[in-house]
Amino acid sequence: MANKNRSSPSSATPKLMEVSGFSLMNEDLLRNILSRLPAISFASAATVSKTWNAACCHILSRPKLSSAISLKPLPLVALQEVFDKVMSEPIRPHFAIASVGPGFEIKDVLQFMVEKVRSRTPIIVSSVKGILGRDALSHEFREVKWIDGNIDEVPVNTGIVLTVGFVPGLKVDVIPLLRQRKAPQGSMIDKFVQDIKSYTSSMSGCTSPQAIIMIGDGSVDQKPILEKLDYAMSMETIIVGDERGQFVYRSSDVSRNVGTNKKHSPDAVALVFARDRNKARGIGNIEFHFALSKGVSAIGPRLKAASVRVQDSYTVTWLTARREGQQEILDGQQMLEDIDNE
């Protein structure tokens, strides 16, 4: 007689499959693999299962900025280069800011970004006089400045720096100041301020956001706009930006995406960061800080002079210094070698 208790091969196969393949990986190994994926693949991996989604959420549990610069002479090549770089690691873009040189058509850059990132990701593209960032391929810091459309430091005018940000615990959107041709500016500024407060209230329950990045039309006086914003917002709200820019934008709210036409023209645009009152448990609070500078800050460690000795017989000035926060004394030759090695 046949043994009725013997398991058939077909009934054992599902159990074997349950303990094979990816299910055999421990949590640390799974996170290690997922953390190496580019952004688009990472987003797909998060939908595979609850376990994978939890691992992805653990990897992206802290704020993250990804930025890159390209000075390639062909605009489309430069744009694709920086996009590939900022999206080469796990990130869920909550916003994107592109600053470009005079060789770019800002509307073309916006259209490229709209096609590449999530449909509800707010985007601002602005034309600027200079950019600074880490090169997408060489990873070296690069800087370029343009003056009245003339090339100053490099033989190209198509530089671009792209930044995408992931800010858990915050809601981000673009809110424009749309001026009607025949309407007084004062009333439109009031509406702009009210739009920011209404959006912030709907997201966080309070009317003042954490921070505002503003880009203003260079042909419009931005002073009355900033004065009303400063009066309406709390002391904790950080407001920074560029008051002499040219820009295009895409808001997550399609009703705000009104291009330049005979009835409306955007005088300014604000990227608003508001606390998310529905943020997941365990997500901390993000704080914003800012600093003012008359120009671009020097790149690299700060050095504080330790001693200066002039040797008249050799017409030599001997300088020693120390890095901020360190006690080691460096002489001039060591500092030059450090600069050459960076």
Automatic annotation (TrEMBL):
This is F-box domain-containing protein. InterPro entries: F-box-like_dom_sf, F-box_dom. It comes from the Eukaryota. Pfam families: F-box. Transmembrane segments: none annotated. The lineage of its organism: Eukaryota, Viridiplantae, Streptophyta, Embryophyta, Tracheophyta. Residues 25-65 form the F-box domain. GO terms for biological process: positive regulation of proteasomal ubiquitin-dependent protein catabolic process; protein polyubiquitination. It comes from Gossypium raimondii. CDD domains: F-box_SF.
